[in-house]
Protein: Class I SAM-dependent methyltransferase
Organism: Coralloluteibacterium stylophorae
Amino acid sequence: MTKIYDQAYFDRWYRQRGIGAGALAHKVAAAVAVAEYHLGRPLRSVLDVGCGEGAWLAPLRRLRPRVAYLGLDPSEYAVARYGRSRNLRPARFGDMAALRPGPPVDLLVCSDVMHYVADAELRRGLSGFGELCHGVAFLEVYGEDDAIDGDMDGFIRRPARFYRRAFERAGFAFCGPHCWLSPARREDAARLETA
């Protein structure tokens, strides 16, 4: 059975049981801070892969009112309802292999998505991340040993090392909580800024 990301899905997992506005604001602030630290300037552009309803936009705009934001998601509901007001467009994760919606961004966000994506599509999509991002990628994903409270329908249990290797194969270097330096930035980092 194919999962449907409609209003009922977002109501259940993001409004009734999901992360609160304060917790999301802290997560966004941390990602912005890491990106700006490595960029050496204020954040200008964000690409949100698997953005859902574009929840990152409001806290981003509170921090950086003029940031350019683009959200990509396969949910017909989210794109139809919020596409115009939040700049959301339809795309699947695997489309990132070839999709180039604009110049590379300062911050690429992919939060709570990859643990629902099949291996082949995950590898395909990640292969394009290095060209999509020339700053920092916030890649929030949970492994098989993490305590998870949320949507387990279609959740793919993989070890953390699986994701580490996948991100490194895509050219990224770990630089903080869920944060990865893009191939364009990783050589500029000091050895102890990456692991």
The two ends are 39 Å apart (CA to CA). The mean pLDDT is 92. Helices lie at 7-16, 21-39, 57-63, 76-86, 119-126, 129-132, 160-169. The first helix runs from residue 7 to 16.
